[in-house]
Amino acid sequence: MKILLAGATGVVGRRLIPLLVQAGHEVAGTTRRPGRADMLRELGATPVVVDALDASALRKAVAAERPDAVIHQLTDLSDEDFEANSHLRIEGTRNLVEAALAANVETMVAQSIAWLYKPGDTPAVETDPLDPSLPPYEGVAALENAVAEMPRGVVLRYGALYGPGTWYAPDGAIAERVRAGSLRLAPSWTSFVHADDAASAALAALDWPAGAVNIVDDEPATTADWLPVYSAALGAPTPGSAGKHAATTGRPVSNAKALNLGWKPQFPSWRTGFSQMEGSAAMNGSRSD
Ligand SMILES: NC(=O)c1ccc[n+]([C@@H]2O[C@H](COP(=O)([O-])OP(=O)(O)OC[C@H]3O[C@@H](n4cnc5c(N)ncnc54)[C@H](OP(=O)(O)O)[C@@H]3O)[C@@H](O)[C@H]2O)c1
């Protein structure tokens, strides 16, 4: 198939291009920056330079590529309040859906998040309600509703992405906070997914039926569970009590639907993923306690 990958230069996009190519697909990948075109070519995609917030340019670009399916991995984390991301989810997704529909594309696979479920005692499944009081709700609901307008719109509700290039990488923002001692134990839940597994889910989802699917690993964890393991992997001191951090919820998240659809994470638990972090204390062979 011919795939248009919007957000091809991101953490997930860069991993996804080779997977798509290996699976026999032809890939056109978007970036706003002409300077990233060579990187996309090297990964195996034809670069398409376009801003998703420019509706008419995006419509022209999608029409010119004539894709069979569109994958949406657009994210904008340029401000601390996530306002740019919310705007991109609302306007960028609207523009992408309209451009895809105008080009008679039937399938769209889009990135959403798995930490918006209302609190509860059991692992959240896709039919459970989202919590409108949480700040990302407006953007996420707009994105998911727009994607549902496609003849086949699949929404991937990703857990907290970790792995090289993410906030959890040894050079990432969360690692810095842990080393600075500003991230602390808390009772809230995080459901993780390795960036490689996020990419493999996007490839698999090209064949999935319409609807939302949680893409998280097998082991949702409270901050009290994962933070000491993560800190040890970084060689940082184990943090004290109380506090909160991004991507947490009052509830673990279930991946049963994704597993039933045939997705098999390469990292079924963050325990393995953290211990294999490049530059981690375990990988360096040093003691971490
Ligand atoms: N996804 C989330 O909601 C979220 C929340 C918290 C933390 N994180 C962290 O963010 C990282 C996730 O990586 P990611 O792949 O989702 O994001 P990313 O690595 O920041 O990639 C974002 C992609 O979106 C593209 N993009 C952004 N604005 C665009 C626009 N207006 N028009 C067209 N393209 C646009 C970028 O392209 P160009 O820049 O090349 O134009 C890039 O390809 C991880 O480190 C994760 O820990 C993500």
UniProtKB/TrEMBL annotation:
SUPFAM superfamilies documented for this protein: NAD(P)-binding Rossmann-fold domains
Record Gene3D superfamilies: NAD(P)-binding Rossmann-like Domain
InterPro entries the record matches: Epimerase_deHydtase (IPR001509), NAD(P)-bd_dom_sf (IPR036291), NAD(P)-dependent_oxidoreduct (IPR051783)
Span of domain NAD-dependent epimerase/dehydratase: 3-211
GO cellular component, one term: cytoplasm
GO molecular function, one term: aldehyde dehydrogenase (NAD+) activity
Protein's name in the database: Nucleoside-diphosphate-sugar epimerase
Top-level taxonomy: Bacteria, Bacillati, Actinomycetota, Actinomycetes, Streptosporangiales
